[in-house]
Amino acid sequence: MADAKTVKFIVTRQDSPDSSPYTEEFEVPYRPNMNVISALMEIQRNPKNASGKETTPVCWESNCLEEVCGACSMLINGKPRQACTALIDKLEQPIRLAPMSTFPVVRDLVINRERMFAALKRVKAWIPIDGTYDLGPGPRMAESKRQWAYELSKCMTCGVCLEACPNVNDKSDFIGPAPISQVRLFNAHPTGEMNKHERLQALMEDGGIEGCGNSQNCVRSCPKGIPLTTSIAALNGEVTKQMFKNWFQV
Question: Which site among 43, 136, 228, 248 is 20 to 30 Å from 174 CA-CA?
Fold first, then answer.
């Protein structure tokens, strides 16, 4: 009887934020239509490495399993992407899994996305509403604007664009493509526009839009196909206008 087909994984692991990373190999029984998450689940059920030695289960994050939550971002064969949509049949083997390097590692493939969430807070990436009472329907958005705004709203804060961007690293305070694109989204909203100048002002500070080097890696890597570079280009113009306004208001 022929040996059952298996899938080989080389996983970069790290026991704690302060410990050194190391690699461990695993072999998982092959099943049709497997994705990386299902393979990690198999390792979790039977935590033995390729040599048959018992080990600790690999830690990773996931939630929706349908490329909506953005939690399962990791490096798969060196490329930042979502593990839930990474099909085994379409990946070169052995499959190499590693945490994204832009963010601090918590354990194994789990990362700390605090840098990205802090950037979203910095640019006020939300629509402020005064009070909890019913204010009635808000102003309507033109259909032409709504269509491209919807594309920007697909952002799932997965962090892939920050990982792909060469300007986002531990030596730079550049906030990255995703927060910049969210500024364009919320500035386009009829209610969010009230805080437009504050968001633009945040982009004019250190680590803001001037940190973009126009590598365009972000738009090529975005799992949702968000036109990130289009947003950055549009906001470059808006920031310039805001700068002139600031001069004349002094």
Answer: 248
Instruction: Note whether 104 and 122 are same-domain residues.
Output: no
Backbone angles phi, psi at 74, to 5 degrees: -165, 170
Closest CA to 178 of 131, 121, 218, 221: 218
Give the Cα separation of 169 and 68 in Å (integer). Answer: 25
- Structure-token pair, residue 199: 């968001």
Write the single-letter amino acid at 27: E
| Distance in angstroms (rounded) separating the CA atoms of residues 162 and 102 | 7
State the pTM of this model.
0.91
Neighbouring-strand partners of residue 107: 110
Please name which of 103, 124, 98, 100 lies closest in space to residue 115, comparing C-alpha atoms.
103
Residue 67 sits in the same domain as residue 131:
no
Q: What are the contacts of 21-29 at 24+ separation with CB within 8 A?
A: 21/105, 24/49, 24/55, 25/49, 25/50, 25/51, 25/94, 26/50, 26/58, 29/4, 29/5
Q: How many domains does the chain have?
A: 2
Are residues 25 and 70 in contact, defined by beta-carbon separation less than 8 angstroms? Answer: no
The 3-state secondary structure of 200-246, one letter per residue = HHHHCCCCCHHHCCCCCHHHHHCCCCCCHHHHHHHHHHHHHHHHHHH
The pLDDT tens digits of the residues spanning 121-177 come to 999 999 887 776 777 777 888 898 999 999 999 999 999 999 999 999 989 999 999
Question: In this structure, are 236 and 177 located in the same domain?
Answer: yes
